């Protein structure tokens, strides 16, 4: 079999999510869902390859969390101190009484930054985390 042959597969999702996806497809100007899914898969694969590599990267870890979660702030601070060599800066925003957004600017080996992101996002009270990265060195 040849790798460039287009393969079809089915995807199941609930109606609400599909409507939102169709809105995204239209907004971004894709001709169909398949084009949008291909782009999402490519992005995920590129992100995953960087996250597991020894490559030097710079980027950000974005965290949304409930600051009133017991011990969360202490645990986040301890993790950041433990991995301070990778952290260039942090910025903290109060979104409302309970919700905070923290932006952590990072630089280092991609797999080490990914470990930091995984440890932070797995803490109880962290509702969402995103690792955005770009290579610092050309391969």
Which features does this protein show?
single chain; 139 residues; alpha+beta; Alpha-Beta Plaits; 2 domains; 4-stranded antiparallel sheet; 40% helix
Structural class: alpha+beta
- Write down the overall geometry: globular
Output the strand order for the largest sheet.
Answer: 2-3-1-4
Low-confidence residue ranges: none
Radius of gyration over C-alpha positions, nearest whole angstrom: 18 Å
Biggest sheet architecture:
4 strands, antiparallel
Helix coverage percent of residues? 40-55%
**Percentage beta strand:** 25-35%
The CATH superfamily of the largest domain is ACT-like. Chain A, domain 2
- What is the averaged pLDDT score? 88
Number-wise, the strands total 4
Topology, please?
Layout: H1 15-28, H2 33-51, E1 56-66, H3 72-82, E2 87-94, E3 99-109, H4 110-121, E4 126-135
Antiparallel strand pairs: 1-3, 1-4, 2-3
Protein architecture, described:
By secondary structure, the protein is α+β, with helices and mostly antiparallel strands. It folds into 2 domains: 37 residues; 80 residues, 2-Layer Sandwich (Alpha-Beta Plaits). 40% of the residues lie in helices and 29% in strands. It has 4 helices and 4 strands, in the order ααβαββαβ. A 4-stranded antiparallel sheet has the order 2-3-1-4, covered by helices on one side. Strand 2 and strand 3 form a beta hairpin. It is globular, with a radius of gyration of 18 Å. The chain starts with 14 loop residues before the first helix and ends with a strand.
